[in-house]
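Chapter review: from sequence to fold.
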Amino acid sequence: MTAKEYQSAAGKAIPHSKAARNIPTAFVVGGLLCVIGQAIIDLALFYGLEKDVASACGSISLIILSALLTGFNVYDNIAKYAGAGTLVPITGFANSMVSPAMEFKSEGYILGLGAKMFSIAGPVLVYGISASVIYGLILVLMGG
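The C-alpha cell string follows.
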C-alpha cells in the first residue's frame, strides 16, 4: 500500500466532526438552563424574597430539577442531544453526583447509594474546601 492509498483509506475511516451541529445545540441548551434558573430567581424576587435568598432558590431549584431528571433517566437523554450544554456547572455537578448513586443503588443505601454519591463530589469538595482555606490564610497574611 502506498502512502497515498493509506491516506485515502484513513480519511474514509476517520469520523467527521459534528461541531457545526454540536456547538450551537450546546449553546442553546446551556442558555436555556440558565434562562430557567434566572426565571426562578426573578419569580422569587417578584414574591418579595431578598436577592441572596432568591439566588439560592434558583440554585437549589436547578439542583433538584437535574437530580430528579437524572433519577428518571431523562437527563442522560438530554445530554446525548445537547452535549456540553448540560454541563452548566450546577446542573452538571448534580447529575455527576446522582448518576453513580443510581448505578449502585442495588448494593444498598449505605454502601451503594451513599458511598457512590460522593465518588465524584468528594474530590471536588475536598479541593474546594482546601483551596478556600489556603486563599483565606493568604488573605489574612496579606492584611486583607
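Two observations follow directly from the output. Residues 109-141 form the longest helix (33 residues). The chain has six helices and no strands.
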